[in-house]
Write a structure and sequence with these properties.
alpha/beta; 5-stranded mixed beta sheet; two-stranded parallel sheet; 3 helices; about 20% helix; globular; NADH_quin_OxRdtase_su_C/D-like; EC 7.1.1.-; NADH-quinone oxidoreductase subunit C
Length: about 200
């Protein structure tokens, strides 16, 4: 384990204190999980405290843990994971926060802290249905405005809920229930076992 990672973990525990749910060093990376009610405050400290100085948000995404570890996951279902970079200290951090309510996943928006979070939060809202309190323009970014549901949720049907088509009689696009029949997809075997190997 690198001394730099241990130093970063120590700095995190010193600065964030009780806001931290857990800190983990694994595979050469530090992951800190903060409580949802202190998420925005923690983000401010991560950016502004000189011993951390995470000036840049590289990425933010939503995660659905519903079937994580083959259904053995017993924690909250939805999380927001951010990757931060401190140019001054030359270290990286994974910041994770779990939404408190699985039925209404809501966390604070960190766009006032790092404005690059704007489109990332819209993407997490669109694909996972995670709401970001305080976001100035939280609307769909990848799916159609009339789209029903959130496609990256693990309970979303593969064929979707509705489809759209052009109706020549009405001379407009109409939405209707999906007409695709469910089918079993069998993986295609490209090669037999031991193909090209010793006989």
């Amino acid at each position: 384990m690198s001394d730099r990672l241990v130093q970063l973990a120590a700095n995190l525990e010193k600065v964030l204190g009780k806001r931290i749910h857990s800190v983990q060093i694994a595979l050469g990376e530090v992951t800190v999980v903060v409580n949802a009610d202190t998420y925005f405050e923690s983000a401010m400290l991560l950016r502004d405290d000189p011993s951390l100085a995470f000036e840049q948000l590289i990425d933010l995404c939503g995660v659905d843990y519903q079937d994580f570890r083959d259904g053995a996951w017993s924690g909250q279902r939805f999380a927001v994971v951010s990757h931060l970079l401190s140019i001054q200290h030359n270290w990286r951090l994974r910041l994770r926060v779990f939404a408190a309510d699985d039925g209404y996943p809501l966390v604070a928006s960190i766009t006032p802290v790092w404005n690059s979070a704007n489109w990332f939060e819209r993407e997490a809202f669109d694909l996972y249905g995670i709401l970001f309190e305080g976001h100035d323009d939280l609307r769909r970014i990848l799916t159609d405005y009339g789209f029903i549901g959130h496609p990256f949720r693990k309970d979303f049907p593969i064929s979707g809920n509705v489809e759209m088509r052009y109706d020549p009689e009405l001379k407009r696009v109409v939405y209707q229930p999906v007409t695709i029949e469910a089918r079993e997809i069998t993986p295609r075997i490209v090669r037999e076992e031991q193909y090209g190997g010793p006989v």
